[in-house]
Design brief:
The complex is a heterodimer. Chain A is an all-alpha fold. Chain A has 21 helices and two strands. Chain A has a two-stranded antiparallel ribbon. Chain B is built from six helices and no strands. In chain B, α1 (5-26) packs antiparallel against α2 (40-58) and α4 packs antiparallel against α5. Chain B folds into two domains: 5-58; 69-146, no CATH class. Classes of the chains: A mainly alpha, B mainly alpha.
Chain lengths: 501, 149
């Protein structure tokens, strides 16, 4: 049953892939630490470069996945030292991390967050190893109707869990799916929404889409924050660099619990590190905050979200690898990267391309150890990254974005398209949209339509096939109840529990 | 009704949905082996988008913070810069165009002239050799550059 893992370690331990995992971990930590460049931006910028290097699919996936997990490590730097979360997953880290830094315990706080990140990620990677093959075996039975229902479920779970405004999340997803319909329709050969431009016949290129949506819009957003107090090179003193064993052991149950919570939340499609961090923090506050010190620099309050957001990052690989449904915005980007290599992730990947699935999982184990080894002693060095001024950062992002898009076809059309998408992304972000649903919709849109049409071709146009099987019916019910529950619960709960409040 | 950002957005999105549906209707499908065809999916999405936009119009959220005039001008300036970069990219070549645009961007983000110049020189020249020799990407060198190598 674990043949794929043995083969995977064989793949991941080759010198090239080991080097890539190390490079990815290093770059990821840097990207995570840099203000404004989260995991998605890091991957968006690196992906075209990885593609031009001519790396095989599994190697470039190993590189990009290491960037992803590394960025979750790096995101804590600015949370703890500057009270500015480096990415969405690190928001809860600021609550107890920054007070700890103010007490002069920045060094131990960074150390503890590295250890809890390691523990959380390890729990989730073990979970991934155990559950992914099982889920893949179930998913092999999925037909087009089941996959369509699954995607509907993924979108509804995302609408409820991601972002503040479910309506905007849904609109974002619809816009993403619509962008995916541009180009030649694979079923009939008809051109859709190309407006006579031959450059659009193949659809909007994935690299153009994510670089525009994330990197270009980030440049515009950074300009708005430029007038705000930038880190002027002063960081709080780190204090002693290492966290003591006693402090780590005091948090061992916190890490274990939060790792499990993070893994489960990461597995659910559409819910990522930010939800995991919030849920684990509130759970831990309820369970172990006896003296009411959460929020004032409690080590457990730091360990909980750190363990959970790394566990969620690893957990979100489960639906991506087994079902081809990404669990987060970042895995959606990784899924798109795999599609560049003509690999469609799904249940067959464990049997047909075990070197990709196994290699990735094995490299997560390796990368996790590498990250701990890098982050414990080098926290002070990584912290210096925070002082890189925006006037260096922004031109660098611009150059990387232009080169990354230009090298695709050596034409300017892609660059103009990237700029247009960048403005679109900026406006969406200003209007309170989160971009993850857009990218999820864009990545899944094509598959969603294909599966719907395939299912209806099988049934000869009878819509009934969509909810005929037990699996798909269950998924429809789950999707519907997810959409209805947030409306119903606040109305029902007071009746069920009249004493609370 | 209050003019909220979300209402404007909702109206614009309904317009988009109508446009999408109209375009889908105009698709000419020669002959289809399958019952659905290329029209239904975009049509369905258009309807869904219109419905969601209605919710936005009737229950708009907070407006958020929009840039004031000076900032909006700077935003526009950055966009124009990026556009100029795109136009000059092939005309002047990577090094010259990057040098100019990096300097301008660095200035816009608060660097002094000296720092901007150093950033521009280092990034354009180091970047050129990193991308071409290091990663094997072919970048436009610019015709004037040919004389030097």
């Amino acid at each position: 049953m674990f043949d794929f893992l043995i083969e995977g370690f064989g793949v991941a331990l080759t010198p090239l892939n080991l080097g890539l995992a190390l490079l990815g971990a290093l770059l990821g930590t840097l990207f995570g630490a840099l203000p404004g460049i989260g995991p998605i931006n890091g991957i968006a910028i690196l992906m075209p470069l990885a593609y031009t290097l001519g790396l095989p699919a599994e190697s470039s996936l190993i590189l990009l996945a290491a960037v992803y997990t590394g960025a979750e490590y790096g995101g804590r730097m600015s949370s703890i030292l500057l009270n500015v979360p480096g990415d969405a997953g690190a928001v809860m880290t600021t609550l107890d991390g920054y007070p700890l830094a103010q007490k002069g315990l920045a060094g131990p706080a960074l150390g503890l967050s590295a250890v809890s990140s390691f523990v959380g990620a390890t729990i989730a990677i073990i979970g991934l190893t155990l559950f992914a093959p099982l889920l893949a075996e179930v998913a092999v039975m999925f037909g087009p109707a089941e996959f369509f229902a699954l995607m509907v479920f993924a979108f509804s779970s995302m609408s409820v869990m991601m972002g503040k405004d479910p309506v905007k999340t849904a609109i974002g997803a619809v816009l993403g799916v619509l962008i995916a319909t541009v180009g030649v329709d694979s079923g009939s050969g008809v051109l859709r929404y190309t407006f006579g431009m031959p450059e659009l016949y193949d659809g909007i290129d994935f690299v153009v889409m994510i670089i525009g949506l994330f990197a270009i819009s980030e440049i515009l957003l950074m300009l708005e924050h430029a007038h705000r107090q930038d880190s002027d090179g002063t960081l709080p003193p780190l204090g002693r660099v290492f966290v003591s064993l006693k402090e780590v052991l005091a948090c061992k149950w916190t890490m274990g619990r939060s790792g499990l919570i993070g893994f489960i939340i990461g597995v659910l499609p559409g819910t990522g590190a930010s939800v995991a961090g919030a849920v684990s923090y509130t759970t831990e506050k309820r369970l172990s905050d006896k003296d009411n010190t959460f929020g004032t620099g409690n080590m457990r309050g730091l360990a909980a979200p750190e363990a959970a957001n790394n566990a969620a990052a690893a957990g979100s690989f489960v639906p991506m690898l087994t079902l081809g449904i990404p669990g987060s915005g970042t895995t959606a980007v990784l899924l798109g990267a795999l599609m560049l290599y003509n690999i469609t992730p799904g249940p067959m990947m464990f049997t047909e391309r075990p070197e990709v699935a196994g290699g990735l999982i094995a490299s997560l184990y390796i990368g996790n150890v590498v990250l701990l080894a890098l982050n414990l002693p080098l926290a002070g060095v990584f912290a210096r990254v925070l002082t890189i001024p925006r006037w260096v950062l922004v031109p660098a992002i611009a150059i990387l974005a232009f080169v990354g898009v230009y090298q695709l076809h050596s034409d300017l059309f892609a660059i103009y398209l990237m700029l247009i998408i960048g403005v679109f992304g900026y406006l969406l972000r200003k209007l309170g949209f989160s971009l993850a649903p857009v990218i999820l919709g864009y990545v899944l849109g094509g598959l969603m339509e294909q599966n719907l049409r395939r299912a209806l071709s099988i049934s000869g146009g009878d819509m009934g096939i969509l909810w005929q099987s037990g699996i798909s019916l269950g998924l429809w019910i789950a999707a519907a109840s997810l959409l209805v529950l947030p409306w119903l619960l606040p109305k029902l709960l007071p009746r069920l529990m009249p004493t609370t409040k | 009704m209050r003019i909220a950002a979300d209402r404007v957005l909702g109206v614009a999105l309904i317009g988009l949905a109508a446009f999408i549906a109209a375009q889908a209707f105009q698709l000419e499908v020669p002959f289809s082996y399958e019952p659905v065809g290329p029209k239904a999916f975009p049509l369905g999405l258009g309807i869904l988008l219109a419905l969601l936009s209605l919710v936005l119009i009737f229950r708009p959220g907070p407006d958020g913070h929009w840039p004031h005039r000076a900032l909006a001008l700077r935003l526009l300036l950055v966009l124009v810069l990026l556009l100029v970069y795109a136009v000059l990219f092939t005309q002047l070549g990577f090094i010259a165009s990057s040098l100019m645009v990096v300097m301008a961007l660095a200035r816009l983000f608060g660097a002094t002239w000296g720092k901007a110049l150093i950033t521009g020189v280092v990034m354009s020249i180091a970047g050129y050799f990193l991308f071409t020799s290091g990663l094997g990407i072919s970048l436009p060198a610019g015709h004037w550059f040919d004389a030097f190598i």
